[in-house]
Structure formats: C-alpha cells, structure tokens
Automatic annotation (TrEMBL), chain A:
One of its GO terms (cellular component) is ATP-binding cassette (ABC) transporter complex. Signal peptide: none annotated. Residues 5-242 form the ABC transporter domain. It is found in: Cell membrane. It is a peripheral membrane protein. This is Energy-coupling factor ABC transporter ATP-binding protein. Belongs to the ABC transporter superfamily. One of its GO terms (molecular function) is cobalt ion transmembrane transporter activity. Pfam families: ABC_tran. PANTHER family: ENERGY-COUPLING FACTOR TRANSPORTER ATP-BINDING PROTEIN ECFA1 (PTHR43553:SF24), HEAVY METAL TRANSPORTER (PTHR43553).
From TrEMBL, chain B:
Keywords: ATP-binding, Cell membrane, Membrane, Nucleotide-binding, Translocase, Transport. The lineage of its organism: Bacteria, Bacillati, Bacillota, Bacilli, Bacillales. Gene3D superfamilies: P-loop containing nucleotide triphosphate hydrolases. The keyword Nucleotide-binding applies. It is found in: Cell membrane. It comes from Paenisporosarcina quisquiliarum. This is Energy-coupling factor transporter ATP-binding protein EcfA2. Its EC number is 7.-.-.-.
Amino acid sequence: MTEILSLHEVTYTYSPEEKEARKAVEGISFSVNDGEWIAIVGHNGSGKSTMAKLMNGLLFPQSGEVRVLGETLNEENLWEIRSQMGMVFQNPDNQFVGATVQDDVAFALENNGVPFKDMVVRVHESLAQVKMEKFLDSEPHHLSGGQKQRVAIAGALALKPRILILDEATSMLDPQGREEVLSTVRKLREETHLTVLSITHDLEEALLADRIFVLNNGHKYAEGTPQEIFSRGEELVALGLDLPFAMKMGNLLRANGVALNNEHMSEEELVNDVWTSNFNK
Amino acid sequence: MDIQLQQVGYAYAKDTPFEKRALFDVNLHIPSGSYQAIIGHTGSGKSTLLQHLNGLLKPSEGIVKLGDLTIEAGKKAKNLKPVRQQIGIVFQFPEHQLFDETVLKDIMFGPLNFGVPREEAERRARVLADQLGLPEEVLEKSPFDLSGGQMRRVAIAGVLAMEPSVLVLDEPTAGLDPRGRQEIMDLFHHLHMEKGLTTVLVTHSMEDAARYADRVAIMHDGRCVLSGNPIDIFGDEERLAEYRLAAPRVVRFQRKVEAQLGYPLDRLCLTEEQLALELSRTVRGERESL
C-alpha cells in the first residue's frame, strides 16, 4: 500500500492574531492509502470542512504539514497538486459555471489548456462514468439534485484526478439522489483506482468506506474500519454522531427484551438474528 | 390557523415566453393545530407550494385561505401583514438571511419590526437562545463568527421570536449533524404540542415525516397526488414508488422482518421505538390477530 495523502500534526486557526482563539483543527495526523475510500465524520464545527480545505490547499496550516503524492503541499506546487484532486461540494446549485452539461464539464479542462480534440473525448468519457452521457446538451437547472451532483463529479473526473474529495456532497439531495451519487462513487471505485475522501453526516454512507476518521472539537478522535468505529456504540452518540440503522434498531430491540446474539451493521444480519434467536429456536 | 388550498395553480413568469408551470390544481386542507408533512422528490413543487403559505407567491389559479384571509387568483390581496406575522417560515439554509451585528439583535429584529416592545423582544430572544442550546456569551457575538450549526439555530430563533401560530419548515435540518438534527426537530415538536401550533414540514426525510407528522401529503410533478395519515401513506410502498419515494427505513425493515416471519405484525410502526415494542410483543406471543 502506498500513501497518497497525509497530514502530520496539522493545526489551523481562523484568527491566529487572537491568543485564546479556538483552533479549528489541532494536532491532526493521519494517512490515506492510494485507492482507499475514507469517510470523515464529526459534529458540526468539529473541523471537517477546515480539513478538506487544508487538504487541497485552500488553507495552509499554521503548523504541521500536508503531504499529497509524496510532496509537502506549498504555494509553489499547489496548482500541480490540485490538478490531481477533484472536489465536489454540498450545494449542487453553487458549482455550475457552464450553460450546458458538457460546457460545465469542459470548463476545468479548458482552464488547464487541454486541446479541444482531447477535451471532447474526456467530457464524453467522464459523463459516461457517471451515467450522464445522455444529458450533454441539457441545461443544468433542468436536472435533479442527484443528476447535478453526478455532473459535478464528472467535472472533477474529467481532469483525471487521483483523489476525489466529497464535502457533504449528498446532504442536500433527496433519498433517490443520494443513492444515485453513492452508487456512482461505488462504481467508480470498482472500475478505477480513485482515492475517495468523503466528508459526511450520513452514517450509512460512512459504512461503505474502507476506513472512517472521527473528528471531535478539532481533534482526531478515532480512526478505523466501520466495524471498529461503530462498535464504540453510545460513545459516538455522545459525540453528536449517530449509529447505523441496524445498530440503533438492535439496541432498541435488546432494551425491549428481544434476544439477539450479536451487534449488526446490516439489516439482513439483524433480521436473521431476530429470527434465529427468537422464533426459529 | 386553518389553511386551505383550493384548486391552486401557479406559473412562474406567467404570460411570457418563459412561462413555467409549477403547480396544478392543488387541493390541500391543513386544519388548525395539525402537523402536516409535505414530501416529494426534488422539483415536485414543494417549495413553490410553501411560498403560497404566507402570500409570498399568489396563486395563478384557485384560492388560498390563511385563517380569515382569502387570497384569490386575479384579485388583489390586501392586508397580508397580520397574517405574515402569524406565519413563521424557516426557509432552507435560513442562516443565509442573518445580517445584524450581534446574535441578540438578529433574533430581535423580527419582533421589533412587528411592533413588539424592545424589552419583550429581548426577553423572547434570550429564552429562545436558551431553548435552542445557544450559550449566553454567543448573544453578543456577530452571527457570522458562529459555526454553521449555531448560525442555523440563531436563524430559527429569529423566526420563533415572532411567536407565530403557524410554523412552516423547509428542510430545517439539512446539513446539520445527527444530534443537531434531532434536537431541532424535537424542539419544533415540543413547541407544536405546547403552543398548539399548526406546523407544516417540507422534507426529504421520510423518517422525520413518519415520526413527527400526523398528516402527510405527497407532491409529484406539481400536483398534490396523495394525502392522508402517515400509516396509510407509508404503508403503501407501491404507491410511494410511483412517485419515486421510498417508505421510511423502519417500515422497510419491518417488511423484511415480516417476510422472514411469514406473517404481518399487528400494526405498521412509524418509529424504531414502536417497532421494537411491537416485535417484543410478538416474541412474547402477544399477537392480537392470531
């Protein structure tokens, strides 16, 4: 496993001139391997968005370093490194620049001086990757929320990034739109070697990741596989987070005297356990 | 306040080449004191409908009745101010509307504007800040120095400070963390019960609609295609699928359990707590319909 991105003792405050100002993130270290899907979770104000901005050089840490693709991020290599990172934000309506879907996807390519011939190919390819190739000439405002976010992902993919950062990219979508975006990301991960960092409040989304980082008040609270993280149970609830549906349901069932053999993160396992422990004895 | 929409149609940019119809023949009665959820996928007309609920938009066709006030298509609506005072709308991302120097002033702005004395406005602001979990020291800060979650609470306090009798909520918890979401939804529910408010919740969350509302209406392609009590609406998954909606997670889970058991439980459960109780009764052999 090769490392693709890491933070080393990173600290950042928005008002460095004030001595007692709270640090948005403090002493954060972690490392992401090439091809991993990482979910970053934490309460509002825990430092998630600050971290996203530190990772792609919108902010620079007051102390510590951010390393991307083996290099320490600085103002000289910022543009080079940023071209390896695609970013998709929360509000689908705030990130459209083109009058049509294909113009929008082409925008970043044009900025990066990609020749027209290649541009056409890449626009088609990346729209096909998110299954939006039929909407080349559609106007963005005629799309649903999920479709808009898929186009935003295509725009990021067109630059052939190594890393895709999703900053609460599904939080404004309806359930169907959320599912569209998540299955798009899942498919991309199967077909490419893309590294995905997703900042999210959606615990079901975090369950899909290889590893989860939990932030609390600007500090790293925990990191581990979804299994490891969610086995902390009520501890996470105390941090303002939630548990996956099957775990919450399981806890409630136990509290009501329904026998269960185990903790479960999937509904299917829980249904099975309810059945075998209570009905099919 | 009783709210009625009768055959309401609405077109944006009406009588221009850009005319776009957003509502067709919407009929909806929201009785005073009820908790009405409006669900539907993106672009179904939910937000357009919502803007009719305090006269921000006037119907192109049909009639909107807000308490004693009638707004009729083609006629000039007069005297909207008293009604607007009674109907508080929490828009999506209400923190974008914060503007004043301090949190306290921002929360007091609405009531002062409607003639509430300064002392009373300040008293309300302090009580609400406390109810919404905003620490005292925040009141003198600029709202723009707060975290996103706190800004949301300030904006909500500003609406509640007008002491509306109708509360219209458009995705009030989008972007909040799970605890913040629950705290705010619980507060709205508490106010709904305690003050006898009429509450209208526009949401993507079937879970919130199932947990809090006593009536649910579905918007689809600009029409109100279905309305009724949550049990009937969420119990009919085929119908929901027609409108590209899914039942709340707990209902889908109940169906999986029932498929495994080979028989339905006595009742459809709309919250995890209800289902846990129902399953424990079933396990103990206390089914009613044997």
